[in-house]
Amino acid sequence: MSQRQEAGAPGPAIVLIDPQLGENIGMVARAMLNCGLGDLRLVRPRDGWPSRQAESAASGAGDILARARLFETTGEAVADLHRLYAMTARPRGLTKPLASPRQVAAEIHAGAGAGRAAGVLLGPERSGLTNDDVALADVLVRVPLNPAFTSLNLAQAVLVLGYEWFLAGDAPGAAAAAKPTGGERPATKAELMGFFVRLEAALDQAGFLLPVEKRPTMVRNLRTLFARGSPSEQEMRTLHGIVSALTARRKP
Amino acid sequence: MSQRQEAGAPGPAIVLIDPQLGENIGMVARAMLNCGLGDLRLVRPRDGWPSRQAESAASGAGDILARARLFETTGEAVADLHRLYAMTARPRGLTKPLASPRQVAAEIHAGAGAGRAAGVLLGPERSGLTNDDVALADVLVRVPLNPAFTSLNLAQAVLVLGYEWFLAGDAPGAAAAAKPTGGERPATKAELMGFFVRLEAALDQAGFLLPVEKRPTMVRNLRTLFARGSPSEQEMRTLHGIVSALTARRKP
What we know:
The structure is a homodimer. Helix content of chain A is 45%, strand content 12%. Chain A is α/β, with parallel strands linked by helices. Chain A starts with 12 loop residues before the first strand and ends in a 5-residue tail after the last helix. Strand 8 (179-180) of chain A pairs antiparallel with strand 5 of chain B.
């Protein structure tokens, strides 16, 4: 199995600085795999490395932990990167450009196309990034959320950024029109018409489409209703079956 | 302060069906508050309600738990809603439109502008939604993610959808998007359920829903078919009229 699952452009490195709980590192690995990211870097994980808690929480994303690299300083962890983003929920005194995950995702893709490697810094759970680490970054990233409650855990922050990165690389997919999920053939217009004629005949016989001057409107409304669901060919047969069943002579 | 909060465009209800761990319910409440959502509905939480685990995990979002409503059935939980989305990671055999969180977010804002209330169904952690619950939904929602690893926990799924909803409310013109065609009020889920129960009773009497071991599948397919067209309240009355007419004693 290949070490990387690159579908073209490499995604950003995820750099966790002083992460506290192994469980959270494992959840970050899962969020990364969700989004097709593979480069995890750890700076001074508090509880040591490797971590059983991380492996347990990462279930299914263990490969990302196994390939994670350990660093003593943030500087070493980001040495090979060209562009650095700092995720932060709080306003910062530092004068840095501020961007949303969507903007950053587009920028990372553009940079990757030009051979530039990007990384995203995230600080410890309790306190977030230090000003010294933020100072290393080119751009601050803030997830647009309810201003009264912006706190996300590490894995959620990675997920939102990774989700935007994944979508930005797959723009047609994101914009794709809704499609039915089943594999069934949609009914032809002829099949739809066949059902309409048959239903309307049954309703005429039952005296439903009266008074006669309202019949055209009623028929139009009925056809609109049944056509709107874009029934499949199988569903047309079910509808025929319903009319047959309901109009059959009752058992005594 | 954003326009959305001033205008009070209500976000979708989040409906957790058979949630297992209180901790996950608490995390969902946090994700909802992150995104400005407030309407949490619980159907048969496994470990009872209220839940200390939920309260502990919700830290900061306890108000949402305190206002959460408890229901015995999915039908009751969604009775007042006009449009229902089912979050699912797996492909489904059912023929339903499939949309991304971004598409759904725009649609929910447009619907709210037209007075239509939306809800999002999420199934239990281990197994996801049952086909019976999926059948109630108008649209399936799938988060576009690495196809090799699409699994998200409850709070993450809510976060991605809520994040898109929050962003869509800030996007100019989002709420001015597509409006329903007619001026008619869409049927509530309770009205839809009322029709289903009545139609199925008539079909049972006619011996249509046989053999009995196939009845659940047949009922699910029927409900899927009629729900997909998102009938209006007026159309529901027409459908009732059709059943009445077709089952009435024939004139000799």
